[in-house]
Design goal:
This protein has helices at 5-11, 40-46, 51-72, 91-114, 130-143, 159-176, 186-190, 238-249, and strands spanning 32-36, 76-83, 118-122, 150-157, 203-206, 225-228. By secondary structure, it is of the alpha/beta class. Helix 2 (40-46) crosses helix 3 (51-72) and helix 3 runs parallel beside helix 4. The protein binds farnesyl diphosphate (FPP). Residues 37-42, 55, 58-59, 62, 81, 86, 97, 100-101, 104, 153, 233 line the site of farnesyl diphosphate.
Length: 261
């Protein structure tokens, strides 16, 4: 993706003591960065606020991550907003989140237009409440022609459900005689996932210190570098993003082979 370096340098002016833009190699930024945004509830609780305030503050972090990704020239940004397991939360919290997703998307659409961001969803959005579903469909159609960064938001997403869905779709084709069992390979399987057409993430960032994948992109994360930070999602900034990329660039990625260094 084309990056405006002057804009990027201005954006990263006045760094804190421990990290600055010069710490990273701009020629080796990951193509696809994915985020598990965690810790909204704990952030709110620590401040004596309702959980909804944590989610509202989380929107600001997500906006900063979208902007930063565009500035850095990331091709694909993805983020886990709502899992298939999150329906187990209180009806009140689920309702608030669904409403927040809809209002946020309406509010942020001008930013997506300005930054040429194409929106995509991972997960079954047909099961969402009408308000959210309709806004999401509008977001999809209004940004479909944008050819800058792709922003894939996982909503009502679960990796095991995604894998079962892919297996069913393949089985149907085999059953109908349009696909032979021997034609099933990794590329074909990947083409039946929600992430079809997207490169696998090179870097996964998880906030709030939990060391789990939480049923997120189990297929796609096979070789992904994982960066876990204790920072709670609403406190995550463009500087934390640089820290994650710096750590990623310091890793020796071998993909099961031996080191080339
Ligand atoms: C995790 O914190 C966050 C979520 C389940 C919701 C993610 C939503 C946002 C960050 C809002 C912005 C997103 C969009 C798409 C508008 P948690 O509630 O699991 O926190 P906890 O683990 O501390 O309880």
């Amino acid at each position: 993706m084309i990056r405006d370096e002057a804009k990027l340098r201005a954006y990263y002016a006045n760094p804190p003591e421990d990290v600055c833009l010069e710490d990273i190699d701009l020629d080796r930024v990951p193509r696809h960065v994915s985020f598990i945004m965690d810790g909204n509830g704990r952030w709110a609780q620590a401040k004596g606020l309702p959980r909804s305030s944590g989610h509202a503050a989380g929107v600001d972090s997500l906006r900063e991550v979208v902007t930063t990704s565009v500035r850095l020239g990331i091709d694909v940004l993805s983020a886990y907003a709502f899992s298939t397991e999150n329906w187990r939360r209180s009806q009140e919290e689920v309702g608030l989140l669904m409403h927040l997703f809809a209002t946020t998307l309406v509010h942020e659409l001008p930013l997506f237009h300005q930054e040429n961001v194409r929106l995509q969803f991972l997960g079954d959005i047909s099961e969402l409440p009408a308000e959210t579903r309709e806004v999401f469909l509008r977001g999809l159609s209004e940004t479909a022609d944008h050819d800058g960064m792709t922003f894939a938001l996982a909503v009502n997403y679960g990796s095991r459900a995604e894998l079962v869905r892919a297996a069913r779709s393949i089985a149907r084709d085999v059953g109908a005689g349009t696909l032979g069992a021997d034609q099933i390979d990794e590329d074909l399987f990947a083409s039946r996932l929600y992430t079809q057409g997207l490169p696998d993430p090179e870097l996964l960032v998880r906030t709030s210190g939990e060391l789990r994948l939480s049923n997120y992109l189990l297929w796609q994360l096979a070789y992904t570098e994982i960066f876990v930070t204790d920072v709670l999602w609403p406190d995550f900034t463009k500087w934390d993003y640089l820290r994650a990329i710096r750590a990623y660039q310091g890793r020796d990625r071998r993909f099961g082979g031996v080191s080339t260094a």
